[in-house]
């Protein structure tokens, strides 16, 4: 018992170390950010440690340390947002506080506190009310809060302090030093861009939806004895298929990153006025699709012993597999389009068209005699799955339209359609017209003679050789 009790602290320490290591491995940027904050705090602490600097700023140097602790955030955009809000709020409030103090002093010793109290009440009430405006709340809420705090401190403390200008100057200077230190280190030492993070999150979310749709058919259309695999399939599902659940809760992080990204300067492939709001639209459509997938996921591993239902499921299997697979492929291409910042290729539309054709085939199946069966309750779950898949295709079409709009706003590059050499060879051997040409036959003809290609003008050719094959090109 004593030995077990002695091992408990060791096991607890090992568990903590494992969690720390895992946290660092999951995102090494967290370690770098921690070191950057430590560096910034060490730098501004010199205002206290170095005597010449302390003689210049005095006790007000503590505001630089507090500024670093408060405004240094993980991303560049968040640091810039807080830093600029704090700097502007402090500057404006300091100027108004000094002005209010000077104006109130004109009313004498009796009237001065009354006037100061009136100014504090008026500006505090007006500033607090402005925080209810959505745009101000989203972008300038921290600045308004600092404005209220600084104005109150300057106007109230200035009533008992003679050197009000010196006090305001020291506080403003130290706050600007702390803010500038944070912004400089955040920008130039291993920067973490909010815009890039938002870009990657949207790409990752669409890929997660694609993974699920491409693997849905294999999970749903299984006809073995499900009673023996229900427990394992429930607890040991592939993480790639269940990763879509994180899309359902990504709204707050996307909105926060989009707000911070709007503060960031040009970086990498992103301009200063990059259309971040369009990413929010795509993210909203992706969540809509994820909710439909959540409904679809509820029908996986639902046991059925009704023969009519099994027969019906076999009838719809091919169409449902085609719908989910083609939708997944379209989403994967769209995710790649955002990732590479290129306009969606025609293949994404082709996959959506294939899914639409499969929907038509599925509707014909649903109109067969099974719908007139006396055992309708047995086929309702499968019919519901069909309806959800149809809605998912509509969601994929909306995502495509939103990405095409993003391509226009962000000036995505266009990718010229190409045909791989292997596919081109197969087309020639099969005698298929090159799909890159719209006409039935152009000015040139490709002739296959003993597996060799000869190109010639179409004019003057009276027919194809006896041992060859003529293909229009």
Question: Quick summary of this structure?
Answer:
With 473 residues, the chain is mainly α. 70% of the residues lie in helices and 4% in strands.
Keywords for this entry:
single chain, 473 residues, mainly alpha, 3 domains, 3-stranded antiparallel beta sheet, 18 helices, 70% helix, elongated, ion transport
Outline the fold blueprint.
Layout: H1 2-26, H2 29-49, H3 51-57, H4 62-71, H5 76-105, H6 108-130, H7 134-139, H8 141-157, H9 164-188, H10 194-220, H11 230-235, H12 239-242, H13 251-261, H14 276-297, H15 307-340, H16 346-366, H17 376-409, H18 421-430, E1 444-449, E2 452-457, E3 468-472
Antiparallel strand pairs: 1-2, 1-3
Helix pairs in contact: 2-3, 2-4, 2-9, 4-9, 5-6, 5-8, 5-9, 5-13, 6-8, 10-13, 10-14, 10-15, 13-14, 14-17, 15-16, 15-17, 16-17
Describe the structure.
It is a multi-pass membrane protein. This is Aluminum-activated malate transporter 8-like. The chain crosses the membrane at residues 31-50, 56-76, 88-108, 114-133, 140-160, 172-194. The chain is mostly helical and 473 residues long. It folds into three domains: 25-188; 194-409, Methane Monooxygenase Hydroxylase, Chain G, domain 1 (Up-down Bundle), CATH 1.20.58; 421-472, no CATH class. The chain is built from 18 helices and three strands. The chain has helices at 2-26, 29-49, 51-57, 62-71, 76-105, 108-130, 134-139, 141-157, 164-188, 194-220, 230-235, 239-242, 251-261, 276-297, 307-340, 346-366, 376-409, 421-430, and strands at residues 444-449, 452-457, 468-472. A three-stranded antiparallel sheet has the order 2-1-3, with no helix packed on it. A hairpin with a 2-residue loop joins strand 1 and strand 2. Helix 16 (346-366) packs antiparallel against helix 17 (376-409). Mean pLDDT is 81; it is low at 418-473.
